[in-house]
Fold this sequence. Notes:
By secondary structure, the protein is α+β, with helices and mostly antiparallel strands. The protein has one domain (6-104): HIT family, subunit A, CATH 3.30.428. The protein is built from 3 helices and 5 strands; from the N terminus they run αβββααββ. It has helices spanning 6-12, 51-57, 59-76; strands spanning 19-22, 26-30, 38-44, 82-84, 100-104. The longest helix has 18 residues, at 59-76. It binds guanosine-5'-monophosphate and zinc ion. The site of zinc ion (ZN) has 6 residues, from α1.
Amino acid sequence: MSDDCLFCRIVAGDIPADKVLENDHVIAFRDIAPKAPTHVLVVPRLHVPNVAELAATDAALLAHMAAAAQQIADQECDGEFRWIFNTGAKAGQSVFHVHGHVLGGGELGWEPA
Ligand code: 5GP
Ligand code: ZN
């Protein structure tokens, strides 16, 4: 838990979020600025800065994130979804607590949302 991390504060319940799923490993909540009809962020409870570090240190937790993403897509978009991990500021990462963007619920073009 890091006091200056937005997603740690959401995990801790200090900042409200529109949650769609939560279990022992992850929480998932709607992005505040949605880019698709379904735009949910899947966030591990553990603070890890990015997906590569998570894969290297806790691959099972990454698998829990994937399972959560599929569950959300099953609930909201016929099981079909795009999963994006912005990694690094130049790639658009603005919160350095790993999160997968689950996008779906419409015809998604190839251009990243
Ligand atoms: P990144 O740019 O790091 O890949 O994704 C961060 C995402 O968090 C952005 O899509 C942004 O809209 C979203 N976001 C930023 N602040 C908040 C917030 O306070 N609540 C929620 N639900 N989403 C947020
Ligand atoms: Zn954090």
